[in-house]
Write a structure and sequence with these properties.
Layout lengths: L7 E7 L2 E7 L8 H4 L18 H11 L3 E6 L3 E7 L20 E5 L5
Antiparallel strand pairs: 1-2, 1-5, 2-4, 3-4
Amino acid sequence: MKYGADDEVLVKVAAHELQVVSGGPGPDPAQWSRLLQPFERGAGVQGVSGSGLGLALVSALARRWEAQLVPLWDEASFSVRLVFPAGGAEASSPPADPLGHAPHLTLPRRTGS
């Protein structure tokens, strides 16, 4: 979420799911599958440091963990969800929030290189 428009990145955790949300439009949806390959970078980011390994690493880990990597675009933000297979009856869910909110953690955006 290096290229988001906001100063914050939101991390949401739920049973069998991890979602990272960043403000801004995210990558071009037509380029998504290409960006999952090592050393591929999005258009217009040549002036930003990076090697094009972030999404490739997440994609490889998702395959290793048999999880689905799901990009989500909306008007105000871009997010990526990792959806893990259910672990069966022995898997436990986090306690429910009485207000219906999913547990989450807001991290400040890293500045500099």
